[in-house]
Amino acid sequence: MTENPEQEYAADESTDDPTTDDMLVETDVSESVAASGPTMSANTVVRAENINVWYNDEQALQDISLEIPENQVTAMIGPSGCGKSTFLRCINRMNDLIDAARVEGDLYLRGKNVYDDDVDPVALRRRVGMVFQSPNPFPKSIYDNVAYGLKIQNKKGDYDEIVEESLKRAALWDEVSDRLDESGLELSGGQQQRLCIARAIAPDPEVILMDEPASALDPVATSQIEDLISELAEEYTVVIVTHNMQQAARISNKTAVFLTGGELVEFDDTEKIFENPESQRVEDYITGKFG
Amino acid sequence: MATQQEQIEGFGHVSRTIGTVFRYVLLAATLFGIVALTILLIYVANDAIQPLTADPGWHLTFFLTLVVPTLLVGGYLLRTDPASFRFGATVVGLLAVSTMFAGGAAMIFVDIVPPVVWFGYVVALGLALGGVVGIERLDRRLPFLARFVGAGAVIVAALGIVPGAIQSLPVYPTDGIMLTLSLGAPVAVVVGRYAAAEAGRRWTALAMLVALAAVGAGEVLGPLLAIGAVPATVLLAVAVVPTAGYAVGHTRRFPARRSGLALTAAVLGGALVGAAAVDALGFAGPQSWVDWQFLTSAHSGTAAEAGLYPAIGGSILLMVTVAALSFPLGVGAAVYLEEYAPDNRFTRFIDVNISNLAGVPSVVYGLLGLGVFVTYLGQPTGTVLIGGATLALLILPIVIISAREALRSVPDSMRQASYGMGATRWQTIKNVVLPRAFPGILTGTILALGRAIGETAPLIMIGAPNVLFSLPTSLSSKVSAMPLQVYAWASLFASEPFYQAAVPAGVVVLLIVLLSMNSIAIVLRNKYQTDQ
Amino acid sequence: MSTDDLQRDLTQRTENAPQELLTRSFFFLCAVLSIVTTVSIILMLTTEAAKFFSVTAPLMGVEGPTASAVDFLTGTEWVINNEQFGVLPLVSATLAITIGSAVVALPLGVATAIYLSEYASPRAQRVLKPALEVLAGVPTVVYGFFAVVYITPALRTIIPGLGTFNMLSASIVVGIMIIPMVASISEDAMSAVPDSLRQAGYGMGATKFDVSVGIVVPASLSGIFSSFILALSRAIGETMAVTVAAGTQANLINPLNPADYLEGALPMTAAMVNLLTGDITGGGIAYRSLFAIGLTLFVITLIMNVISDLVAQRYREEY
Predict the structure, then answer these.
(1) What CATH fold (topology level) applies to the domain B303-531?
(2) Which of the residues A95, B314, B460, C131 has the least number of beta carbons within 10 Å of its own beta carbon?
(3) ipTM of model
């Protein structure tokens, strides 16, 4: 394939164009789950190959293979308990911290298999940012929260500048620039989550993982976070797990649908998933017949 | 055209040296106190028991008859069937601890409370309880106040009249039989209920009969084994029958664990065979300072002849008094604070008060006893009653705090279920909350009593005598206690012989008692937590 | 059932039924007993101590020998037979024990707490926690005995000038005694730190060391501090271990000078015990000095306990 249709889609984020034959042709070309091969299109930041995860004897993820493209928002949706968060945690090997979890398969971050024997998970996690469901700022000052990643990595540079830049990118600078010494816990829920985002992007990660980042927030804060995520995709690659389908439809470029048993049923451009999915099960899920 | 992609060779490595060093430093710090204490314990045990003074043949005999079989059987069981191992070990532990308590109880019945007096009170209590139950049956026809007063009258009358009446009988059964009935009967009831729980209702009667008969055998066995009817009966009632009952009941329920008894047999059998062997072969045992003479003699100016007997008796009586005082009052306060108290300033004031009292030095409690009980109320110094009351006040905050935690651990949903059915608060507490919290309360009380047994300063403050030559016999007798006696030897009688002989021996006996109580509490707590 | 019965059943006030009132009153009285105890302690200490001091003795209608409050608080000699009642030597000795045991127990206790809460496996915890409880359960007399008979001779091999009764051995055993207190309260505080904070740290590539020292410990600082105060309050009130191990000479020592720890001294609690075993007749000035010291001790430990409560409450971080 010589042309790179995905890039066109990346350029104009939410296309409102009606389906055309062109799109049909192009979606043929876009990689779907079953047809994944070794060649990569666009800039793929994360590539999963046959990831399987068990919690004790129960299988949580079945043979997941997908590619996450650069500078886009990739959403993972599906009913609860279908392994979305588990997959997310495979990317930065946070599942290693769970005794009962067993991971098999390969996962490449910028071409390096993170499950190789010579990979230090701690070093890996310094290159990947993570934002959790409930905001969890440290009981430290706002400044110290954002600078935390820099501090533990002993990064050189002007911390003041990096903190300011991160807070600006997290759309929080205007609100806290005059009180960087205050505790992060003094902020409201939405502000705390933006602080956690600033904290995650300060060390300049390869990819930002977000596990239902807005589910604990009120609607106003939620929409602020959603706007923020869309902006972040200009600089960073974002992978977001959400159980809110409308949210995924609003902000993501590509969507992966996980269904019961940890099965990745379909992975495609968001448009395609929501308007004309290949799989009947996905269509049933989208239209609310279950889940 | 495929765009250029950044490829990563690797993610780098983060040094873990600081972390690993840190972890080992932490472990060392954690183990510091424990290891230090273990070394000190070994030292004092060595000084008291003097194992190295025994013949090598003695060591060898016991090694062959006791140590080797135990290690073999134990190791095998541990590897193949840990549950059986735990069961066997529990039986051995139970036997050891209960024998110790049996010794204490025997001391009480031999020297402090004549069996006939005890028998009288037990009969009186039985009659009183029967009367109260009978009155309660008249629920419908009499109002509460009348029933309450009636029950109170029955109890007072029974306890007042019956013991005296029994003691003035011209003829009454022998000590052994009386103890069988008064001590063995409650034990038999407990064994019967345990049998019912483990093996089914129909075993209750049989288990009770067998237990009672076994205890009764003490009357005959005692003189036969030259230890006297009373000690034999007590030993059977407190140590042998409960342990056997537990062993039989548990095997009934978990037949697979029967192999655990092999461990018990190895330990017990090995000890008995070893003892017989060293006797026959004429090997001298260690010249231990902790021996029968030490445990049964009173204080003496000569270190080698000094003994702990009155102090042990004193400690037992004090503990009974302390338990009788602090348990109801402490649990009562905890029940009020957890179940009744509204969330207002007064309640919080009581809360703060109790936690402050828990931090007051024990010496100040001694002053309290001295100032209030002795000086203000004019009581004689150093009696069982005053000592027990002072110690009870000392551990009361601890009992309250741990009872509150036990009550708090009862899930609120259970209370809600009871209230939802229209039960009153007292009914809920009595039927739902207390039974469920009981093991936790018991554990906390045992630990608090363990603390009280080791306390010396309050007793000094209220004027307990430094040396006591005879056992205390009533609430108003002067009392000593084990730690107090040891302190007296270590300070007032401080001299080389005492520091060599009496003091280490006293320390070891005190520590054995304390460690037993701690172990019971820990085992109880573990069982309670796994049951929940 | 007739409606009359229903009416009666529904409106009966079971809350005030005799059983309920009876049980409620009983439990209430039990709880009130604690207040009675505190009030008694305060009353008795203050009245008896009042009889001791010259300024207040006339108020209590006491004639006879008394001591000046100023002399008590500033005097540097404590010799009963000479009627010298300066409390400073006693306070200095108590202070020395407190500092000495703090040096032992605070670092070891916090380290133990970190290990138990962040590093130890559940199996290790099940063994270590009861073992620590045993440490706390050994009678204090036994600790004093250990100090004199085993620790002092052992220390003498490296410090030849060590007296038979010395503050160093006493401080060490008191320190060992209070390690479990620091460890268990600090560990409770650390376990209360929500796991989401640790996850945030790990997610950023922090090592276990970073998370334990950089996140968990700072977050539980108030609980740790509170445990320090409580444990030190216990060290101040510790009686028998120091009575046996620290000696009977009321020397005025400098708690900040390590060399002073090599001699014996007389902490406040030991002084009280000595007063009583010294066979004094009740009612004399020596008897009343007991209460003066007791009052000082009570006030100190009370203040420390109140501070510890306040610290734990006011600075408890909200998560």
Answers:
(1) MetI-like fold (1.10.3720)
(2) C131
(3) 0.89
